[in-house]
Design brief:
There is one protein chain. By secondary structure, the chain is mainly alpha-helical. It has one domain.
Length: about 110
């Protein structure tokens, strides 16, 4: 799943130029920083040998921060940035939640 979060990070970095909101510094830097965090965390997750979950905690927290960023940094008038960051942030929160909170499968008889 780490390759998909890396792809989302790349999309987050190039989206300001594709959707023409690169003239807003808050939206631009939010997309850049979030994309870089996703790429670094997914790269580290790809090289990790064990079942460490700290990468997904970072991705999940960054996703929540990205969802809140348009409101905290006051660029809600840039609708392309708001929707892009909320969608990518939401997907990463869902992916991190799945990875972090998936339990061991149980059988119907309990063993």
């Amino acid at each position: 799943m780490h390759w998909f979060t890396g792809l989302l990070g790349f999309v987050s970095i190039i989206t300001p130029y594709l959707l023409n909101y690169s003239d807003n510094p808050s939206a631009l830097w939010t997309s850049f920083i979030f994309g870089a965090v996703l790429i670094v965390a997914s790269t580290l997750a790809g090289f990790a040998k064990g079942k460490d979950t700290w990468e997904y905690w970072i991705v999940g927290i960054a996703g929540i921060g990205t969802i809140l960023a348009p409101f905290v940094l006051n660029f809600t008038t840039v609708t392309a940035a708001v929707w892009t960051l909320m969608i990518i942030g939401g997907i990463t929160v869902i992916l991190a939640g799945i990875k972090l909170f998936q339990g061991e499968p149980r059988t119907r008889l309990g063993y």
